Amino acid sequence: MQSIISISNLTKTYASGLQALKRVDLEIRKGEIFALLGPNGAGKTTLISIICGIVTPTTGTVIADGHDILSDYRSARAKIGLVPQELTTDMFGTTWNTMRFSRGLFGRAPNPAHLEKVLRELSLWDKRNDRIMTLSGGMKRRVLIAKALAHEPDILFLDEPTAGVDVELRRDMWALVRQLRDSGVTIILTTHYIDEAEEMADRIGVISKGELILVEEKTELMKKLGKKQMTLHLQEPMTEIPATLGEWHLILKDKGNELEYNFDAREEGTGIPLLLRRLSELGIGFKDLQTRQSSLEDIFVSLVHDRT
To answer: What domains appear along the chain, each with residue ranges and CATH number?
Structure first.
């Protein structure tokens, strides 16, 4: 698939000596939703700020839809819409004027029909003449998205787009992001909500301490790193695990009422049939059996923990 953003050997070291990015190489495909995950201070916002021309890199190149973000800044930036974490807009202006002004900044001819379409899709049409300061937090967040879409960008960055908004609004925004992707817009999303990435992303990148430690298709990531967990609810509590069950590395939980077994779902021989047979031979009965697939959150925590 064609790349719309190409990042090569990108680093950023601030005057204080802080190395915010350490040689990042990344290709973002046209028309995908790419989720960038990482703990606070990992370098997510620095990376986005460099691509959007807000921060100057120390070394490396970034090409946005064929345009170098340094040598061809105006053309590159015109391809990009940015929804920042913070509410950065004129609170005294109206929703409509804010969008119209933003479109003009990029040298785009007036297009009231496009602005109306965006406002209607974001359920902001009836708020078009309201001052932004009078809107709710969720509506202000929508205005930021509308402002970013005013000049019809091909690439949209969403930096923590649903931070501080209620669950219903988050769902609405998810639907909007999918709609934008279906219309051909490439979405790059940073989020602290792991379920957001799991719900929407086509590919996931994990950044930690300025290093991009993993980039993978979401489905492949779940297959490769996802573990399964089986929990046996025992008929009688156990005080200790018999030595003959040592090869399964079982964990005794819930005051001896549960046995937990973690295994790799990709392996053909999970050891479960033999384990159940051995339990039967030992006279250890169980009332119920549950299995659970590890979530993206489990994988993310494991990856970041391994780097600390």
So the answer is: 3-223 (3.40.50.300), 227-307 (3.30.70)
